[in-house]
Q: What sequence folds into this?
């Protein structure tokens, strides 16, 4: 119920065996070569319907170090794509569309695909570069402010998680999921009104985000702050799922899925902060 790029992967979701399942496994003949959770096919409920896979002696396990290196690699690819998109803003729209499609494909794949994850980083970089260049031309310095804000939220969230002061809960996760669905519905309606509507909302830069005010505050600021909170909570869920993967010793390939999930959340966070700053500066 968190980032689908991570929570839909049984290797990282922290499922455990029941007492009956453990007893059945221990009662099996010692000569059995097929190990539950490793050699059985992947199912939606888990690997073989029982337990996530663990690294075999021939496989390297997922660690924090190799997961961080993969995340940094994807971040550098996004930066390279952003540099191209900055100077070629015409690529922003194709980057957004293809990046969205690749994001959905990667999120619901049962096995991580490195080429598809890398392509996602490339096209999202093109989108971010074009968007950032456009915003920087309108509001000089806004990109630097958005980057500082993004890394500040990421750093504070990670420090709070490492200290143990911030953790997820089933109740809060359900609330966040409902809020995410509501945010998605609002975003789709807003885009539709901007494209096909008329009046002040259709003509404003961010649709209902700037065309409607609540107690004198642009709706975009309220929605944006909520989105930043949702993204920060998503980071906590990402950290927990990565921690589960490392502690369970799943194969290293799942580090690519973890890195992809972090990139999805960070890109969302950056875009929301950039939009909040643009609305604020547009009202100066």
A:
């Amino acid at each position: 119920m968190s980032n689908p790029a991570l929570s839909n992967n049984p290797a990282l979701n922290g499922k455990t065996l029941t007492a009956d399942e453990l007893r059945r496994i221990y009662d099996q003949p010692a000569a059995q070569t097929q190990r539950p959770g490793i050699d059985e096919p992947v199912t939606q409920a888990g690997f073989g319907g029982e337990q996530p896979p663990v690294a075999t002696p021939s496989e390297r396990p997922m660690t924090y170090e190799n997961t961080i290196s993969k995340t940094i690699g994807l971040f550098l690819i996004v930066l390279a794509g952003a540099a191209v998109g900055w100077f070629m803003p015409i690529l922003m729209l194709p980057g957004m569309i293809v990046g969205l499609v690749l994001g959905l494909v990667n999120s619901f794949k049962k096995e991580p695909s490195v080429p598809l994850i890398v392509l996602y980083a490339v096209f999202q970089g093109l989108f971010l570069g074009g968007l950032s260049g456009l915003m920087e031309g309108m509001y000089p310095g806004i990109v630097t402010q958005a980057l500082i804000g993004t890394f500040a939220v990421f750093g504070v969230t990670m420090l709070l998680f490492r200290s143990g002061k911030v953790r997820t809960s089933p109740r809060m996760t359900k609330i966040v999921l409902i809020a995410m669905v509501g945010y998605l519905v609002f975003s789709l309606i807003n885009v539709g009104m901007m494209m096909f509507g008329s009046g002040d909302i259709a003509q404003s830069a961010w649709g209902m985000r700037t065309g409607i005010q609540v107690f004198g505050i642009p709706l975009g600021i309220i929605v944006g702050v909520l989105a930043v909170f949702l993204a920060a909570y998503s980071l906590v869920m990402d950290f927990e799922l990565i921690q589960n993967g490392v502690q369970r010793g799943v194969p290293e390939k799942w580090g690519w899925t973890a890195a992809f999930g972090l990139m999805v959340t960070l890109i969302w966070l950056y875009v929301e902060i950039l939009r909040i700053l643009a609305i604020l500066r547009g009202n100066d």
